[in-house]
């Protein structure tokens, strides 16, 4: 795409193109970080009799920190999948050479405290709530394959824990929407929309008469 063509794009298409370009750059940078880290690791351990899982997990931790510093937060999940793909390829080579396979890296993103949002102290960052989230992550980060139930459960848990969705009617409506296999609309590359129809006394775009009221 030429610079002239970009100027003729509509706003949402221009944003989508920019988003795709940012994602490609993040993935390429992640590949380079992984390659550099793996090369350094091999050189450091070239005379070792064996590579332990502990050494590999330390390498993954080091890479996570480097990726977290180098990549925007909304691109971090894509970068972690790229890290997993890199070490999947490393394992393919090791398998052909009859070498022990490396453990898979964790692909879950560790949530961080939102910047400049003090209201979350009232909910997520109380010690009891934080303990619940930590326990969930200790289980979730050990998984690399996910059933439909896993995905739906974690999605609803994330809505409560990280998005602040604490209304029972809202959560039930979202669950019903998923259960009924209704269409989920994609607005941009990184934005999905589920149109829900709920009765609310505070806001909405439709007036619904209630029996017994005027």
Secondary-structure map with pairings?
Layout: H1 3-8, H2 11-44, H3 53-70, H4 76-96, H5 127-140, H6 148-161, H7 168-179, E1 185-188, E2 191-193
Antiparallel strand pairs: 1-2
Helix pairs in contact: 2-3, 2-4, 3-4
Task: Describe this entry's structure for a reader.
It is a single chain. With 214 residues, the chain is mainly alpha-helical. The protein has a domain at 1-110. Helices cover 56% and strands 3% of the residues. It has seven helices and two strands. The chain has helices spanning 3-8, 11-44, 53-70, 76-96, 127-140, 148-161, 168-179; strands at residues 185-188, 191-193. The protein has a two-stranded antiparallel ribbon with strand order 1-2. The relative contact order is 0.07. Mean pLDDT is 77; it is low at 1-6 and 114-124.
Give me some keywords for this one.
7 helices; elongated; 2 strands; disordered N terminus; mainly alpha; 56% helix; single chain; 214 residues; two-stranded antiparallel sheet
């Amino acid at each position: 795409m030429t610079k002239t063509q970009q100027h003729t794009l509509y706003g949402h298409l221009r944003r989508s193109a920019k988003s795709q370009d940012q994602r490609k750059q993040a993935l390429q940078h992640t590949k380079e970080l992984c390659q550099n880290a793996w090369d350094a690791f091999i050189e450091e351990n070239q005379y070792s009799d064996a590579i332990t899982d502990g050494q590999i997990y330390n390498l993954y931790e080091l890479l996570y920190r480097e990726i977290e510093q180098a990549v925007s937060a909304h691109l971090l999940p894509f970068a972690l999948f790229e890290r997993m793909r890199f070490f999947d390829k490393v394992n393919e080579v090791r398998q052909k050479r009859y070498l022990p396979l490396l453990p898979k890296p964790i692909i879950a993103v560790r949530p961080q405290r939102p910047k400049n949002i003090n209201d979350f102290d009232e909910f997520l960052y109380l010690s009891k709530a934080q303990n619940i989230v930590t326990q969930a992550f200790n289980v979730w980060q050990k998984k690399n394959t996910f059933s439909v139930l896993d995905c739906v459960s974690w999605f609803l848990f994330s809505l409560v824990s990280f998005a602040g969705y604490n209304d029972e009617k809202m959560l039930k409506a979202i669950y019903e929407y998923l259960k009924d296999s209704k269409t989920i609309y994609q607005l941009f590359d990184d934005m999905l929309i589920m149109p829900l129809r709920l009765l609310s006394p505070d806001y909405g775009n439709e007036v619904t008469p209630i029996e017994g009221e005027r």
